[in-house]
Design a protein that fits this description.
Shape: globular
CATH architecture of the domain at 65-188: 3-Layer(aba) Sandwich
Radius of gyration: 16 Å
Number of strands: 9
Strand content: 25-35%
Order of helices and strands: HEEHHEHEEEEHEE
CATH topology of the domain at 65-188: Rossmann fold
Largest sheet: 7 strands, mixed
Number of helices: 5
């Protein structure tokens, strides 16, 4: 099945038919990973060549001409979307990883989760001061991981131009933690 025609006048935004078409590839799994959580599983989207291509191409089109110099992907599903975006935008790719996964000199930040905390790291030479970066992940939920990544990039002197996601869980209000930053999400639930 191919994706529906454009019909959207603003680059990078989806027409209602496109939203409905792409949304069918996101599976809702109740009570995972714990009771009361409705998990949004993107595996069907990743398995469908047309849906995956459409998502990546739409995100890339949104950022063309914005002077992005590096794409920063958050472990691990941010790598899935960030690497092809970097390729399509003609930039390099910077992985932000969980503690202990990067082999060179790193800086780190601890951030809060709903049920504890975690530590993110990035190589100290990952970006150059003043470099325009795009931060990418699959999902914006509470915003903690993304806010931590933004802080890491700014500590290295990068300019965070925008934050890109396949899905935003709007009810969790992750944007509030991101202090009015530019946020782009293809789908919202």
């Amino acid at each position: 099945m191919s994706h529906p025609g454009s019909g959207s006048s603003i680059p990078g935004t989806l027409a209602p038919a496109q939203t409905a078409w792409l949304s069918q590839f996101v599976r809702a799994i109740p009570d995972y990973p714990q009771k009361g959580i409705l998990f949004r599983d993107i595996t069907p989207l990743l398995q469908n060549a047309n849906a995956l291509r459409f998502a990546i191409e739409t995100m890339a089109e949104h950022y063309r001409g914005m002077g992005i110099e590096q794409v920063v992907g958050i472990e691990s599903r941010g790598f899935i979307f960030g690497t092809p975006l970097a390729y399509m935008l003609g930039t390099g790719f910077v992985p932000v990883r969980k503690k202990g996964k990067l082999p060179h000199d790193t800086i780190s930040i601890e951030y809060d989760l709903e049920y504890g905390s975690n530590v993110l790291e990035v190589h100290t030479d990952a970006v150059k001061p003043g470099q325009r970066v795009l931060v990418v992940d699959d999902l914006l939920a509470t915003g903690g991981t993304t806010a931590g990544t933004v802080q890491l990039m700014e500590r290295l002197g990068a300019r965070v131009v925008s934050l890109a996601f396949l899905i935003e869980l709007a009810a969790l209000n992750g944007r509030a933690l991101l202090n009015g930053r530019d946020v782009f999400a293809l789908l919202a639930f």
